[in-house]
Amino acid sequence: MELIPVTILTGFLGAGKTTLLQRVLTEAHGQKIAVIENEFGEESIDNDLLVSETNEQIVQLNNGCVCCSIREDLRSALVMLADKKRQGELHFERVVVETTGMADPGPVAQTFFMNEDVAQTYMLDSIITIVDAKHGNQTLDERIEAQQQVGFADQIFISKADLVSQEELADLQHRLKHMNPRASQRVVHFGEVPIAEVFDLRGFNLNAQLEIDPDFLSEQEHEHQHHHHDHDGHHHHEHDEHCGHEGGCGCGHAHHHHHDDDVKSFVFRSMRPFSAAKLEDFLGAVVQIYGPKMLRYKGVLNIVGTDRKVIFQGVHQMMGSDLGPKWAEGEPKESKMVFIGIDLPKDIFMQGLEQSLE
């Protein structure tokens, strides 16, 4: 059986997850979708969409989609859905997992790699995070879970943008980009999103292009960062949040508010090739120490001894790599890596990566 693609939908309470989900389920795209909800609560799909009582575990929706609440854990819900599909009791082509507003998507994503039954049946396609423009900055200030959801995202949808000024929206977008430069952002109204921007994004596909906002890279080079090391092992980072471009960031707003988010990102680039052995040792070591704080990391690498790109990515302690296409004729063989995590010591990572080069 072909692997079933899975999309994880996350976002803080009231951000508009259910609105987007309803939109996806009711759009006439002809796809049969199984939805797994972390819970049936007030946030769940409106009852008028449901054909039968919500007290059973699987609900057939009137458009042929399936809705399943997690009474135990995600793994067993996925295995049960797959069994019913095999036996012809249920028909669906893909799965959407809607997490609770308070959830850290990390353990949900890990389920697709750590459990053999799940990994043999399903393929994690992407994590979509919805951020509410009206309350987004405040939620990010107050809740580390909201920051984690942004850090994990492959695609960020910004809802309720009509309730804020252009300047407030630009400030939020700037902040999100600093937290996660590899996720594309899109402003959406009432969950109206083309289906092509929700499914088959290949965010977890090793060979999918490494998307890093090019403006982010130029900003990083202009940023001044000061690192203070306490003797208690904690690292404090002070960010100078200006863009480095004359007159601001090009969005017409010269000043951005300072947000000292726990979730931050940084990019490593080098034209020198990596030594495979040194890099493996270094990444193995940092994953041991910082794994729980490393949300998403991904890279396209130039490694000594191969004329092909090496693509790698990871979530927390789990890493995978794969040989990608050959470097094209005349293409600069530049390694690029992005790390997104909670209070990661950038200087230790940069120094270790530098020392892993030939």
Relevant terms:
single chain, 358 residues, alpha/beta, Rossmann fold, Hypothetical Protein Yjia, Chain: A,domain 2, 8-stranded mixed beta sheet, 5-stranded antiparallel beta sheet, 10 helices, 15 strands
Question: How would you characterize this protein structure?
Answer:
- With 358 residues, the chain is α/β, with parallel strands linked by helices.
- The chain has two domains: 4-197, 3-Layer(aba) Sandwich (Rossmann fold), CATH 3.40.50.300; 263-356, 2-Layer Sandwich (Hypothetical Protein Yjia, Chain: A,domain 2).
- Helix content is 28%, strand content 27%.
- The chain has helices spanning 17-26, 74-86, 105-114, 116-119, 136-142, 144-152, 166-179, 214-222, 276-290, 346-355; strands at 4-11, 33-37, 58-60, 66-69, 94-98, 122-132, 155-159, 184-187, 225-229, 235-239, 263-270, 294-301, 308-315, 318-326, 335-342.
- The protein has an eight-stranded mixed beta sheet with strand order 3-4-2-5-1-6-7-8, with helices on both faces. It has a five-stranded antiparallel beta sheet with strand order 11-15-12-13-14. Strands 9-10 form a two-stranded antiparallel sheet.
- Helix 7 (166-179) links the parallel strand 7 (155-159) and strand 8 (184-187).
- GO terms for molecular function: hydrolase activity; nucleotide binding.
- InterPro entries: CobW-likC_sf, CobW-like_C, CobW/HypB/UreG_nucleotide-bd, P-loop_NTPase, Zinc-reg_GTPase_activator.
- Keywords: Chaperone, Hydrolase, Nucleotide-binding.
